[in-house]
User: Which sequence fits this backbone?
C-alpha cells in the first residue's frame, strides 16, 4: 500500500522546502497516555530525517480540545488512541477508505484543497502496523495463514484494525473473535458485514466451541494487559488458553505493550511454543506509517532500526 500516494487523493502538500526546520508539532490524544512510547519513537524518527519537529501528549477525550489542537497552524498531524479512535473520526473533513472500512481512526494528516485551505483527514495506520510488523519478521506469513482460521482478541478500535489487516492481507478462511462483552462483538460483526460484505467472522462464546474448532494460524491480541477478573474476561482468557495449547502452533501478535511488552498473553503463547511479535514492534511500524504521511517522504531505515531498538524489552527508561 502506498499510503503517501493515496493521501494526495485528499489534497496537495502542505509542506514547503523549509518545513523540516520549522517548529512543527504532532500530538497523541488519548485517555491514559502518560507513559506512552509514541513521543520517544516519533522523536527518533523525526531526528533521523533532519526534522526539528516534536510529538506531544494531549491526555484528553474532549472533542473541542482535539479540534482546537489539530487545527493550530503549527500542528502537522496527530495520533489517536483509546478511547477516542471511534469518536474523533467523524469530526474530520474526510476519512480514508481504511478508516471507513475499519470504523476507527488512529491518525490524522493535513492536505490542502484547490483553494489552499487546510483539510484534516483521518486514516487508520494501526492496520499497517500489524501488517508490517508481521511481514518484517516473517515475509512468508501471508502464505502460511492463507485459507486457515485466524483469531482476534478484543472488541474495541484496535480489534477492528486487527480484523481488517488480517482479512485484507493474510487471507484467512475466517476470523474467530473472543471478547469479554458479546455486545461489542455484535457491533463489530454488524459493521464489517456492511463494510466488507464477504468477510467471515465467528464469535467464540464458550470453551466447548473453542475445543471443537481448528487451531487459528494467527492470533492478534488487542486488549489491555490487566489480570482478568470479571466473568467475561475470565472466559475470554480461558478461550485463549484453549487455542494456544492445541496441537498446532502459530503466530501470536499482541498489540498491547503496556505496562511491558511481555504481556500475560505473550508469556502464555511463548510458553506454548508460538512465534511471538510484541506490541512495541507493531507500535514502531504504526509510527513509521504516520511519519510518511506527515513528512511526505519514505522512512529512514536506520532511524526505524534505532526506534525499534529504543523500545525493545530491557530498555528500562522507555517503560
Assistant:
Amino acid at each position: 500500500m502506498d499510503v503517501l500516494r493515496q493521501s494526495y487523493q485528499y489534497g496537495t502538500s502542505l509542506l514547503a522546502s523549509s518545513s523540516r526546520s520549522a517548529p512543527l508539532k504532532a500530538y497523541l490524544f488519548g485517555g491514559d497516555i502518560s507513559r506512552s512510547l509514541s513521543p520517544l519513537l516519533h522523536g527518533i524518527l523525526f531526528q533521523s530525517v533532519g526534522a526539528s519537529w516534536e510529538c506531544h501528549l494531549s491526555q484528553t477525550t474532549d472533542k473541542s480540545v482535539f479540534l482546537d489542537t489539530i487545527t493550530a497552524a503549527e500542528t502537522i498531524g496527530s495520533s489517536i488512541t483509546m478511547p477516542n479512535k471511534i469518536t474523533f473520526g467523524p469530526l474530520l473533513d474526510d476519512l480514508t477508505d481504511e478508516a471507513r472500512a475499519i470504523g476507527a481512526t488512529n491518525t490524522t494528516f493535513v492536505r490542502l484543497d484547490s483553494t489552499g485551505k487546510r483539510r484534516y483527514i483521518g486514516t487508520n495506520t494501526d492496520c499497517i502496523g500489524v501488517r508490517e510488523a508481521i511481514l518484517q519478521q516473517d515475509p512468508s506469513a501471508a502464505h502460511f495463514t492463507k485459507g486457515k482460521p485466524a483469531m482476534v482478541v478484543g472488541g474495541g478500535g484496535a480489534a477492528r484494525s486487527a480484523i481488517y489487516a488480517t482479512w485484507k492481507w493474510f487471507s484467512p478462511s475466517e476470523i474467530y473473535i473472543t471478547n469479554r462483552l458479546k455486545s461489542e462483538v455484535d457491533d463489530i460483526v454488524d459493521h464489517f458485514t456492511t463494510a466488507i460484505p464477504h468477510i467471515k467472522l465467528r464469535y467464540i462464546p464458550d470453551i466447548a466451541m473453542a475445543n471443537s474448532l481448528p487451531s487459528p494460524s494467527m492470533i492478534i491480541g488487542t486488549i489491555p494487559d490487566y489480570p482478568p477478573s470479571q466473568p467475561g474476561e475470565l472466559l475470554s482468557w480461558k478461550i485463549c488458553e484453549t487455542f494456544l495449547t492445541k496441537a498446532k502452533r502459530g503466530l501470536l501478535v499482541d498489540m498491547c505493550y503496556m505496562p511491558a511488552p511481555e504481556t500475560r498473553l505473550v508469556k502464555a503463547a511463548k510458553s506454548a511454543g508460538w512465534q511471538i511479535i510484541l506490541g512495541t514492534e507493531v507500535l514502531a511500524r504504526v509510527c513509521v506509517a504516520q511519519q510518511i504521511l506527515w513528512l511526505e517522504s519514505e522512512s529512514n531505515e536506520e532511524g526505524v532500526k534505532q526506534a525499534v531498538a529504543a523500545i525493545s524489552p530491557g530498555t528500562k527508561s522507555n517503560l
Notes: Residues 26 and 55 are 5 Å apart (CA to CA).
